[in-house]
Amino acid sequence: MSVFTAVPEPVLADWLKHYAVGRLVELKGISAGVQNSNFFVTTTLGRYVLTLFEGMPRAELPYYLNLMAHLARHGLPVPAPIADRDNEYLGTLQERPAALVVRLSGSSVMEPGPAHCDKVGAMLAGLHLAGQSYGRRQDNPRGPAWRTATAQAVRGFLPADEQALLDAELAFQAGVDLGALPAGAIHADLFRDNVLWETGDDGESRIGGVIDFYFAGHDALLFDVAVTVNDWCTTPDGALDAARCTALLGAYHAERPFTTAERGAWPAMLRAAALRFWLSRAADFHLPREGEMVLVKDPAEYRDILRLRTAGVPPLP
Fold first, then answer.
1. pLDDT value, residue 1
2. Nearest-angstrom CA–CA distance, 171 and 291
3. Out of 3.90.1200.10, 2.60.40.10, 3.30.450.40, 3.40.50.300, which CATH number does the structure's domain 114-309 have?
4. Which one of 79, 90, 165, 222 is most buried, counting C-beta atoms within 10 A?
5. Is residue 42 scored above 90 in pLDDT?
6. CA distance 263 to 194
7. Does pTM surpass 0.85?
């Protein structure tokens, strides 16, 4: 994520004394993302990621950290949070809620093929199945209420044709009934840059890590699939690549079969997922926050994806 709040090395070195992770060796800001301040932290005993939560209510943060711990216990490649000497995952640093998690190995693949999508689909199904036994519940923070409020905030910045698109999609989504869809804990932001890949001795790529759970929440599992497909299976012009779609959805379906209700809701979920990221990117673009190192993504990409998804999509397996 971007760096909004700087952390001097002496301050961090003192803070790390609350943990059994050794002494600070290196601190480096991470310049990707838009939500929190993140840093790579290397100590004498390991490699970690430090997150300072910017503007997120402290009371909501245990949901994310305990979800990551839950999924890690179930064998999923997620960054396990580190408890301090008082056995707490959440601390305070630079007057911000802060957490330290294990830094996973690997790097992102920004031009995935069907083989990558197959593994992502299977992993996402495993995440959803493991999440069914997670005892905490917290609604998707980018759900309907956020969607309505954000649309109101950005609408005035949009040209007339985009205002018309936004109004029509909000009206359409307001009529979608999600009650019959399987629900549970979802990642909600499983983009290509949030999956790390390693190459095994056999030369095959494997998922080494799934990161950035700070948009997670309780919602329709199908929405999470739609978010993932809209990124992993989309061509540069916004269309869906048939081979990658088939691989990702087929691998997911093999682990957690889609229901009849999900098949019916699939086109609407792809549109909802596109709307969510068009709105969030439009808000970041038109209503930016100040920061030391901030990445703002182009909202036009997901505006165009939304337009394409309203024209029709291939069915689920």
1. 43
2. 35
3. 3.90.1200.10
4. 222
5. yes
6. 26
7. yes
